[in-house]
Amino acid sequence: MKKVRLWVIFSLLLLLTIGNIQAQQKNVGLGIILGEPTGLILKYWSSSTTAFDVAASWNFVNQNSFHLHADYLFHSFNLFKVEKGKLPVYYGVGVRLSLEDRTRFGIRIPLGISYMFDKAPFDIFMEVGPVMDVIPATEFTVLGFIGFRYYF
Asked: CA-CA distance, 151 to 119, in Å (whole number)?
């Protein structure tokens, strides 16, 4: 029941944040991630090459745990040239909170690639996120997912 309450609180905060950001910018993407973990993701572009992303997700393999992560991302648009759209590689640093029998907190180093469509307001992406948990013990995990986001 505690996880459900946390999910409701996080969802309400996410909706309030989206409303405030949308009023100021049109570079906010909301989407779905599939893999380990699976859930919802929000991306906010803070400049032409940097962004924040936040996700709420579930890891069904490891004790049905609920995850929250937040990252600061850097994008390189020069590695791959495509005729239409954009194909940035991104990397960053962030944190992850995993709520399960033992609450875990760790540092994330996400690495991914995204295809941004030329005339459509969405992207598709793939990401690998090594995590070094530091609480309650030092443990190393690699999480990965694919996803898409709609920008408004």
From this structure: 12
Other Cβ atoms within 10 Å of 40 Cβ, number: 16
> Which residue(s) pair with 99 in the sheet?
66
d(CA 118, CA 86): 7
Q: How far apart are CA 135 and CA 83, in angstroms?
A: 45
pLDDT in tens, 74-122: 999 999 999 999 999 999 999 999 998 889 999 999 999 999 999 899 9
Length of the chain: 152
Could you report the per-residue pLDDT of 58-74, keeping only the tens digit for each? Answer: 987 766 789 999 999 99
The closest alpha carbon to 105, from 85, 75, 135, 129, belongs to 135
Q: Where are the alpha helices (DSSP H) in 62-141?
A: none
CATH topology for 2-151 is Porin (2.40.160)
Q: Report how far residue 21's alpha carbon sits from residue 15's, in angstroms, rounded to the nearest whole number.
A: 10
Contact present, 35 and 148 (Cβ < 8 Å): no
Give the integer Cα–Cα distance in Å for 2 and 117. 39
